Amino acid sequence: MDYLTVKEGNIFIVSDQLGNIRADDKGYGLYTFDTRFLNKLELTINDRAPILLSAAEEENYINQIHLANQEFESHGQQVAKETVGIKRSRFINELLYEKIELNNYNNFSVELELEFKVGADYKDILDIRDFADMEYTNEVGLEEKEDRLTFSYQGSDDITRRTKIACQPKPLEISKERIKYNLTLSAKESKEVYLYITPELKEEEIEIKDYDLALEELKESYQNWEVQGTEIKTDNQEFNQLLKRSNLDLRTLMADFGQGDFPVAGIPWYVCPFGRDGLITALQMMLLNPEIAKSTLRTLAQYQGQEVNPSRDEEPGKIFHELRFGEMANTGVTPHDPYYGTADATPLFLILVAKYYRWTSDLSLVKELLPAIKKALHWIDEYGDQDGDGFIEYEASPELGYEVQVWKDSQDSMRHEYGAIANSPMAVSEVQGYAYRAKKDLAPILEQLDEVELSRQLEQEAQELKANFEAKFWLEKREFYALALDQNKDPLASITSDIGHCLWSGIIADDKAQQVVDRLVADDMSSGYGIRTMSKEDEGYNPISYHNGSVWPHDNSLIVAGMKSYGYSHAANQITNELLSASKNFEYYRLPELYCGFDKKEGIVDYPIACSPQAWAAATPYLLLEAILGLNVNLPENKVYLDPTLPDNLTTIEIRGLTLGTQQLDFKVVQKNEEIGVSLLSDSELEIIIK
């Protein structure tokens, strides 16, 4: 990456490798709630930019940037380059803390002119990303004091936004958009300068804590996150590194929107709630921390659609696609307060309810969410199915910028096998699978709530949907299922990864599963680094496209889980190995949002604007592990099923502190030769059933 990021809660910063926020068009800045509170933070030493030595963000919560001086003159003496060390360390704990450490390695004293150029523009992130244009009617104000600057802006949404910059020690000079220090460092002497930058939305003072104390609090919060989650150890160090990185990234991506931790979609441009992304991430990471599912469900239920509002694709019972908090959303320039244009978030919401209940036996949450559950079911049948054919469709909203309303949401993703882009209304394959699984999984749970008639209705509807799907989506000539049905109910016969999601949902007929699996792992679909989104043999294929031939880790994790659920453990292990092989090519073993779909022999090719870290990519290893273990939890019946099948170079998995309701489970899986054994590491009242 050519940029650095730090995020905590709803605040994040994007800078260049020097740690500078340059006032150009790259989107650098300090952001919170979709507004840029700082668009300039440039450090110079004696009027020159420092030299970059290294920039690290391995710990996620802190940037540590090592710099050095350019050559300069001090008291008539030349100071050679790289003889003064400059270290910038920054983190966020309610505000941005930055420490600049200066070390004089010369045998004589030097005088340094340390200067920060600062600025604020309060642009909306959707404006910066060119989603829509915004006219800012008010000017940015500036208040100067001896040791601080305050920028302010009164938005057209009547919210006053402020950026407070405090300095320690007191600088020599503070003037418009400039903070200046003159520092004399004796031979071998070190000095420190601190900046405390607070993005403020409300009239409340945020306490500036001691730098070291604030950093220690942040470290402890990461340690607590790790303790609260399941402890996982394997004998494969690469897999361990991937799990460690994913755990860190998921912690970083959490933010609270009123109901507890919610995984935002990705850094830097999607630090906000997305319905689909949050739901899939929570489903993937159940093995790590089931509590995230609970707060995710509550957050989404809080904003469930209430009325028919075409301006933001809202309908009663619908789960939103994207929620923004900036000036553009607040004033209706964009429809994101929230925007509901997605066909799949509503059934995914129901699937997460069911999985959370099976893993926790928390019937009280299901009761709490029962009105939202019923509204979501009503949406599927009355609004999702636009023409009464039994399938959920979406219709494009190009005036709102959303022509495709499923996870492959680029404008050109819905293609026929001959390359032509299809027109909506569109019934996409995986969405039907999600609806099937939602109804099938909810039916037995609702029966426990004395919703017997609704339970039987859902079971019947699920079976009817499965039969209807088989009749309309199966392509006899291609021996595969259609990507979608277009506005004329003609099938899109492209070979795509979407059908792997249909394995995960269980809507694929048992007698077709082998053909589907074989097709997904064939050379035109499997890149060697994971399954492509589209076959190389289709006319629409492009390995550097967003959705027509690239590889998405989360997509593959759902496919792997689907393969394992149908009993195809060999294929599941193959794709798991491919993703593990891919992870070694990325910094810190961090799987990105996506990468290009070239063959493995050509090496990993980055997708140029992939989010990293990104939530459902970070959660991918946990769903892979769930599949490897064949872990299926039914806590209401006090049963845990295990069917482990281990991929290459992985012979031992140790799980401790797996939280299942009020109980915890510790167990170990070991493979010797062809035999796999499971042993409990602590007493348990659960019935463990090993296949």
Summarize the structure.
The chain is an alpha+beta fold and 691 residues long.
Write the CATH fold name of the largest domain: Glycosyltransferase
User: Can you summarize the main beta sheet?
Assistant: 8 strands, antiparallel
Name of the CATH first level of the largest domain: Mainly Alpha
Average pLDDT works out at: 96
Q: How far is it from the N-terminal to the C-terminal residue, by CA?
A: 44 Å
Radius of gyration, CA atoms, in whole angstroms: 27 Å
Secondary structure: number of strands: 32
Count of discrete structural domains: 2
Can you name the CATH architecture of the largest domain?
Answer: Alpha/alpha barrel
Helix content: 25-40%
Instruction: Count helical runs.
Output: 16
Which strand-content bin applies to the residues? 15-25%
Q: Structural class, judged by helices and strands? A: alpha+beta
Low-pLDDT stretches are none
Major sheet: order of its strands? 6-7-10-11-18-15-14-13
What is the approximate shape? globular
Domain Mannosylglycerate hydrolase MGH1-like glycoside hydrolase: 282-585
GO biological process, one term: carbohydrate metabolic process
Protein name: Glycogen debranching enzyme
Coiled coil: 201-228
